[in-house]
Amino acid sequence: MLIGVGLGPGDPELLTLKSVEILKNSDKVYVPGRMAADLVAPYADAEVLDFPMLRDYDVLNAVWKKNAEIVAQHARNGTVAFGLIGDPNFFSTFSHLAKIMNKHYPDVETSTIPGISSITSFASRADAAVETSFEVSDGSEKRSKIILKAKQPRKIINSLREEGFTEFIFAERLFSDKEVIIKNVDDIPEQGNYFSIVYARRPSLGTE
Ligand SMILES: C[S@@+](CC[C@H](N)C(=O)[O-])C[C@H]1O[C@@H](n2cnc3c(N)ncnc32)[C@H](O)[C@@H]1O
């Protein structure tokens, strides 16, 4: 089992209780750099795995594959935590590592524990509350959209289809005992509520 653990923006007091628990109870903990290693240090002895920023894709792929192999050795027989700055599903090294693991080591289950991301950290520190729709970009193509307050999910999905979106996930009351996550679009209900989210994704247009 491999768990991507969000370590928050860098303040040791901004790790979640769940992240700390996972770090303490894992058989092995990896991190991609010094900053993450320092955040993990009070709870576990982390090993730094190097993920260099290279332009040579052949070399880069070889490094990623090697790292996946190292992680898989432990994750096959125990619990491995991979600690990252911010959130593990948000522009994160972990997403790519999980993809490689799922492809080459499908027997290793992967999951994530959310962390406080740079977006909400920024809003807090810069006193810049986000109160209307907004865009986050790292310069890559825009392929996904998240709709909050999705009280009429099917109506939302129909309108997103017209914008070229093809994949949809409906989520409600996440991390509560009433949590709902529906990935099959045909099963998404007409009616949501205030704590409903629609996530939409479209294929790459290869234009950006
Ligand atoms: C590869 S992304 C990682 C994002 C991270 N997974 C998250 O959830 O915030 C790296 C970018 O996130 C932003 N970032 C991450 N931590 C930050 C922090 N503590 N302060 C400011 N920006 C941060 C920077 O723009 C940086 O280039």
List the SSEs and their pairings.
Elements: E1 2-6, H1 17-25, E2 28-31, H2 34-40, E3 47-48, H3 57-75, E4 80-84, H4 93-104, E5 110-113, H5 118-125, E6 144-147, H6 153-162, E7 167-172, E8 180-182, E9 196-201
Parallel strand pairs: 1-4, 1-5, 2-3, 2-4
Antiparallel strand pairs: 6-9, 7-8, 7-9
This protein binds S-adenosylmethionine (SAM).
Distance between the termini: 35 Å
SSE pattern, N- to C-terminal: EHEHEHEHEHEHEEE
Q: Which CATH class of the largest domain?
A: Alpha Beta
CATH architectural group of the largest domain: 3-Layer(aba) Sandwich
Large-scale geometry: globular
**Count of all domains:** 2
Please give the largest β-sheet.
5 strands, parallel
**CATH fold label of the largest domain:** Cobalt-precorrin-4 Transmethylase, domain 1
Q: Work out the helix count.
A: 6
Any overview of this molecule?
- The protein is an alpha/beta fold and 208 residues long.
- The chain folds into 2 domains: 2-119, Cobalt-precorrin-4 Transmethylase, domain 1 (3-Layer(aba) Sandwich), CATH 3.40.1010.10; 144-201, 2-Layer Sandwich (Methyltransferase, Cobalt-precorrin-4 Transmethylase, Domain 2), CATH 3.30.950.10.
- Helix content is 31%, strand content 19%.
- It is globular and about 50 Å long.
- 28% of the residues are buried.
- The mean pLDDT is 95.
- Bound molecules: S-adenosylmethionine.
- S-adenosylmethionine is lined by residues 9-10, 84-87, 90-92, 117-118, 121.
- Residues 9-10, 84-87, 90-92, 117-118, 121 line the site of S-adenosylmethionine.
